[in-house]
Design goal:
This protein has 114 residues and is α+β, with helices and mostly antiparallel strands. It has helices spanning 2-48, 54-58, 104-110, and strands spanning 61-62, 66-68, 71-77, 81-88, 96-103. Helix content is 52%, strand content 25%.
Length: 114
């Protein structure tokens, strides 16, 4: 009887340790993903606020890369559209990418000329 009690106690202890380790790993993973999503949203907002210059909009194809902090931004133009493409290369963190596009003709009419 005493041996069965110790085996049962050992089994319950192993089960509790496994459950604790599994839950702990899930909590850490969830916290990491929330931090990553927060960084991605902040980066996307910064990229959304970027306004291409007239020279970037007039240039065909890819413009030169603009560096703002840890963000690298370039503009790609096609016939009727332009796309703002960005990558964030913060040291020690995974890279983030985002992009947006709009009509090129309207943007050229409204761009600020120096």
């Amino acid at each position: 009887m005493k041996k069965i009690f110790w085996i049962l106690l050992f089994t319950l202890g192993l089960g509790a340790a496994y459950a604790w380790g599994t839950l702990s790993a899930q909590w850490k993973n969830e916290a990491w993903h929330q931090a990553q999503e927060s960084r991605q949203k902040e980066f996307a907002h910064r990229l959304d606020r970027y306004t291409p210059t007239c020279s970037q909009l007039q240039q065909a194809g890819f413009s030169s890369v603009v560096t703002t902090g840890e963000d690298r931004i370039m503009v790609h133009t096609t016939g009727d559209y332009f796309y703002v493409i960005g990558i964030n290369i913060a040291p020690g963190k995974s890279p983030l990418t985002s992009w947006w596009g709009a009509g090129r003709t309207h943007a050229l009419q409204n761009c600020k000329k120096p």
